[in-house]
Write a structure and sequence with these properties.
The complex is a heterodimer. Chain A is 39% helix and 13% strand. By secondary structure, chain A is α/β, with parallel strands linked by helices. Chain A has a domain of 299 residues: Amidase signature (AS) enzymes. In chain A, helix 10 crosses helix 12 and helix 10 crosses helix 13. The longest helix of chain B has 20 residues. Classes of the chains: A alpha/beta, B alpha+beta. At the A-B interface, helix 10 of A face loops of B.
Chain lengths: 485, 479
């Protein structure tokens, strides 16, 4: 059963060819047997606790009070607060933190009847592109254990790729759902900013953070996003906009769908073998009736510098609450207040987190604020304008998700700029607040390649539709790494 | 001697009287046990988000409209970043570049001078911080976050005041206004109305501002006056001895009556303000402003002017009576029950006897044992001459002690004024008969004895003889 997609399992539960308890046991067993190779989980729940939830889900199905997700196992990225279950954000700072509340996403998926197996590993505070900054150690890519799974939602991606769980949640601030999805051969979607509540999701960069689902297929993601999306009165930035029926819209054909290819995304820096796979995907989509045209997003080449001003600026403020006073890590025997702050934060934050706090503090400082933060915000608006213009000509924009396939562990961890370049194609969607998806498009040297689809605001249904139609005629999303078959 | 001019600008933190906090649903009640009025949002736990309390916005708009300010249609919350143990998030959510209220002015009364207009720079919404408690923790500090997230309206004036007296008048006028608007309980001991004063000195006639010192958190009108006067002297002393004033923040010590340096400009925080990405701009529609406008009460100055014009009160009486909404209401109710007769008499009674008794017993008007209806009963008895003003004081005392309404007290105690000429005459006759020697002395020219006869008559009638009639009749009998 473990090989199957969430959609398949949902049907199986519906047809009673398996039970939720059986599914929970199968996946839990795989986690216990295989995750030592990957390190994709930070916390695995007790079997009793899991089985109790699975039994409840089976009972709900028996009563007919279920959703398509009832009884399906899931794991949450350890950035989502879970009541009475440790939420670490992969940081020493929160190694002892247990939230007294559930994130809205957690509540919604719980209500939909999903069975929580555990919390997945990630880059510390979601800052990283390789899952190497975690306090709990790096996650390995199931396709090649010497390579990284991508980040920051690396644990969420690796766990699905290894079929330790059929679905996970992720968060995406600059590509943290799409980049690991691409590198692990999965489908993942970052919704429009404001589509999914951020309440209870530990903030990295508030104006960029969005939660989204990760799974094998676009169809799986449609079912998950259906349950996750919607206005939340606890999040002032969530949008009061009706959630369409995502699953119903994935079956539309692609005749007349106009897809744009931004020339800036197919330029120097893109691996030739990756480019070839993207071109094959374009051919497949043409066969399905989509039309293609070259477009230009001239300002997007500034995404990287803009992102590395805005995200650290917000993070420097968001992470100020981790001060050793009320919760989380506190240094031993602080001599005075400043010592308490300095040592608690220096001892508990990793190098990448400290680097970004320092950058953020710098760009917000008086005398530098206008030159960095204000200018970055202006360029951010120009980037959004580029997309606005593009979407008058096309319905969807297609590009590679990453410039290359997964790189080796330790290859880039000491070279932040080269690491940051790994997100070069994904950052702009966060800066503009647009929805974007990554779907698998083949293998290069046995490592997955991802295609990115960017849509206009609140057109998640269109992205899922295009991806689903593509997945109807391709099998890349069904591939399982040999070691985990 | 050099002539110096003082320049004062005030920043007043008004705690808004909302039931819940500005960004969370936790209660704002004062005086609860530490950390009992906090939720995850006030604690700054990871992942939680602020949601703006619309009541706080309404109150800010109400204030803005009452000072003829501009209400910004999209004010913005920003984060003011600094570390302090009682600041849970490591930043205070405040408004920086785009405050909700911009401009406006307040007219302040000055003794013996014309009113003065003080310009308001801005008023912005922000959250309060918690409290650090340094006692009872054996060398450690305790943190109480009950106050964290309580909504504040920070009202910033232009440097338009020229003396401590003007500053105090501005504060009192503002204090009255926010209580009138019912946006603040005005309780200064509990910190609901706090003031920071920016003070600088310059040579008379100069137009540029001198270097200022900021005095933090002075929590009574009296201390504001003392702190400012101390600071003025300190700065003039420095300048006259050839020194320069440094820009710094100072604390007022009320026990020693002095200000002390707290931190200099150099050691001031760089707050790294930036717009709070967790909160959208505060969108205010013209309809919303109109709705608030319709709920605005008559403002103190409007009321004061009306009391003068409509009831012929002196400016002083009108100002005292309109100074508190409750007192003005009491006065108007009493007056109404008296069919708008004798407003001056009523004003005198309320300002004199009633306020005097309240002060003496340390009571607020709401707790007054004499209601406006009862007061009007007493006034009517004076107006229709049932009792004299002097007897009325006795009746008032009895009313204060809860002995009933004026009418029953007068009846029960037989205090009704004797106005029957025959009755008064027979009393006079009796007195003159009983005191022949005094009559003789009076007739011999000892005028002072007139008072003796009046006193005797009042004694016999327990003060109920109509004084004018008594005087007239006595005089004619003695002549």
């Amino acid at each position: 059963m473990y090989q199957h997609s969430l959609s398949f399992l949902s049907k199986a539960l519906q047809e009673k060819t398996c039970s939720s308890v059986e599914l929970a046991k199968i996946y839990l067993n795989r986690i216990h047997k295989l995750d030592y190779k990957l390190n994709s989980f930070i916390t695995v729940l007790d079997e009793d606790q899991i089985l109790k939830a699975a039994q409840k889900a089976d009972a709900k199905r028996a009563e007919g009070k279920h959703t398509p997700l009832t009884g399906i196992p899931i794991a949450h990225k350890d950035i989502f607060c879970t009541k009475d279950i440790k939420t670490s954000c992969a940081s020493k700072m929160l190694d002892n933190f247990i939230a007294p509340y559930d994130a809205t996403v957690v509540t919604k998926l719980k209500k939909a009847g999903m069975v929580l197996l555990g919390k997945t590993n990630m880059d510390e505070f979601a800052m990283g592109s390789s899952n190497e900054t975690s306090y709990y150690g790096p996650v390995k890519n199931p396709w090649n254990l010497k390579t990284i799974p991508g980040g920051s939602s690396g644990g969420s991606a690796a766990a699905i790729a290894a079929r330790l769980v059929p679905a996970t949640t992720g968060t995406d601030t600059g590509g943290s759902i799409r980049q690991p999805a691409a590198m692990c051969g999965l489908t993942g979607i970052k919704p429009t900013y404001g589509r999914v509540s951020r309440y209870g999701m530990i903030a990295f960069a508030s104006s960029l953070d969005q939660a989204g689902p990760m799974a094998q297929s676009a169809e799986d993601c449609a079912l998950l996003l259906q349950a996750m999306a919607g206005m939340d009165t606890k999040d002032s930035t969530s949008m009061d906009k009706a959630v369409p029926d995502y699953h119903a819209s994935i079956s539309h054909n692609l005749h007349g769908v106009r897809i744009g290819l931004p020339k800036e995304f197919f330029a120097a820096g893109l691996d030739a073998a990756v480019q070839k796979k993207i071109e094959e995907a374009i051919e497949a989509l043409k066969k399905l009736g989509a039309s293609f045209k070259e477009i230009s997003l001239p300002t997007t080449n500034l995404s990287l510098p803009v992102y590395y001003i805005i995200a650290p600026a917000e993070c420097s403020s968001n992470l100020a609450r981790f001060d050793g006073v009320r919760f989380g890590y506190r240094c031993n025997e602080p001599k005075n207040l400043n010592d308490l702050y300095k040592r608690s934060r220096s001892e508990a934050f990793g190098a990448e987190v400290q680097r970004r706090i320092l950058i953020g503090t710098y760009v917000l400082s008086s005398g530098y604020y206008d030159a960095y933060y204000i200018k970055a915000q202006k360029i951010r608006r120009l980037i959004a304008e580029d997309f606005k213009k593009a979407f008058t000509e096309v319905d969807v924009i297609l590009s590679p998700t990453t410039p290359s396939t997964a790189f080796k562990l330790n290859e880039k961890i000491t070279d932040p700029v080269s690491m940051y370049l790994s997100d070069i194609y994904t950052l702009c969607a966060n800066l503009a607040g647009l929805p974007a998806l990554s779907m698998p498009a083949g293998l290069v040297n046995d490592l997955p390649v991802g295609v990115q689809l960017i849509g206009n605001y609140f057109t998640e249904a269109k992205l899922l539709n295009v991806a689903h139609q593509y997945q109807r005629i391709t099998d890349w999303h069904k591939l399982i790494p040999t070691e985990f078959q | 001697m050099m002539k110096w001019e003082t320049v004062i600008g005030l920043e007043v933190h008004v705690q808004l009287a909302t039931k819940t906090k500005i960004f969370s649903g936790a209660a704002t009640t004062y005086g609860a046990a530490p950390n009992t009025q906090v939720c995850a949002i006030d604690l700054g736990l990871p992942g939680v988000l602020p949601v703006l309390n619309e009541k706080a916005v309404e109150m800010a708009v109400k204030f803005g409209l009452s000072v003829q300010a501009e209400i910004l249609s999209n004010s913005i919350f920003a984060r003011k970043n600094y570390f302090y143990p009682d600041l849970p998030k490591g930043y205070q959510t405040s408004q920086h570049e785009r405050p909700i209220v911009l401009g406006g002015s307040l007219e302040i009364p000055l003794e013996g001078e014309a009113n003065k207009k003080i310009r308001i720079t801005r008023a912005h919404l922000e959250e309060d911080a918690g409290k650090s408690l340094h006692e009872d923790f054996h060398g450690l500090s305790g943190i109480d976050l009950n106050r964290a997230g309580v909504p504040l309206l920070e009202i910033v004036s232009e440097p338009d005041m020229r003396s401590a007296k003007e500053a105090v008048s501005y504060l009192k006028t503002l204090h009255t206004l926010v209580k009138y608007l019912e946006i603040c309980d005005g309780n200064m001991q509990e910190g609901s109305f706090r003031c920071d004063a920016n003070i600088s000195i310059r040579r008379l006639g100069e137009t540029t501002l001198g270097t200022r010192a900021e005095i933090k958190n002075v929590n009574s009108f009296r201390f504001v006056e003392k702190a400012i006067n101390f600071e003025i002297e300190r700065q003039i002393d420095i300048l006259e001895s050839g020194g320069t004033v440094i820009q710094e923040t100072r604390l007022y010590d009320s026990e020693k009556d002095e200000t002390r340096s707290m931190r200099s400009k150099e050691s001031a925080n760089d707050y790294r303000y930036f717009p709070d990405p967790d909160l959208l701009p505060v969108a205010i529609e013209p309809e919303f402003i109109q709705k608030i406008k319709n709920t605005l009460p008559e403002l103190p100055q409007e009321k004061c002017a009306r009391f003068e014009a409509e009831f012929g009160l002196s400016p002083y009486d009108a100002a005292v009576l309109s100074n508190s909404k409750e007192l003005a209401h009491y006065f108007e109710e009493t007056l109404k029950f008296c069919h708008y007769k004798e407003p001056k008499l009523i004003a005198n009674w309320i300002m004199g006897d009633l306020l005097g008794a309240l002060n003496k017993n340390n009571l607020t008007l709401e707790k007054s044992p004499v209601s406006s209806l009862q007061m009007s009963g007493l006034m009517q008895k004076i107006i229709d001459k049932t009792i004299s003003g002097k007897i009325a004081k006795t009746v008032f005392e009895a009313m204060w002690l809860g002995e009933g309404d004026a009418i029953s007290i007068i009846t029960n105690k037989g205090l009704q004024q004797i106005t029957d000429t025959g009755a008064i005459e027979s009393i006079i006759d009796k007195i003159l008969l009983d005191n022949p020697s005094q009559v003789a002395e009076y007739k011999a020219g000892k005028d002072r004895l007139f008072g003796f006869f009046v006193g005797q008559a009042m004694k016999l009638t327990k003060g109920t003889a109509n004084p004018e009639q008594l005087n007239d009749l006595l005089r004619s009998k003695l002549s």
